[in-house]
Amino acid sequence: MRAVRKANIDGSLAEVREQAAHCRDCPLWKNATQTVFGAGPVAARVVLVGEQPGDQEDLAGKPFVGPAGRLLDRALLDAAIDRKATYVTNAVKHFKFEPRGKRRIHKKPSELEIGACHQWLERALALIRPALIVALGATAARAVFGRTTAIGKNRGRILAGAQAKHPVEADLLVTVHPSFLLRVPDEDRDEAYAGFVADLKLIAPYVS
Q1: Domains of the chain by range and CATH?
Q2: With left for phi above 0 and alpha for psi between -120 and 50, is residue 204 left, alpha or beta?
């Protein structure tokens, strides 16, 4: 019976992915290469939510494959968490950027863009039904909680799922986005990275 249910969920999530690929609810699709949906097992007990795809994610069509993604992989490894056991996605599914020469420089999504994309996050979470949702950074926290949420005040502890914007019965964890660590001054980077790993270690009971 479990195998049949999983197959049905797979199909439903595939349908949501296909629908999201044609989303025109905000202008970001016009300049992005493609919609970047989530990746990972449909039965994942942990969902990691980031901000939006970056340049490399936009080109590859996969979340967290650029510099921030590689740092996330290393931190998860140091926290003894298997990324393959988690589902990874973003609050916004298209890359928002401004051209600067030949480079495409990341721009923070607006409230309108976060709101337009929330349906895709909500529908994926409803199908996956994780036990824990991890908000990586302020934009992810805004999408998960439905309001501005202070990272420093709330990180490093498990929060009750009733605080979330969507009707998924899941605990919540707030931490920084890995791209933040790439911008930390060299002298503070080791401490900031250690704090990030400490936050991710709280995932362990949910994937063991």
Answers
A1: 2-207 (3.40.470.10)
A2: alpha
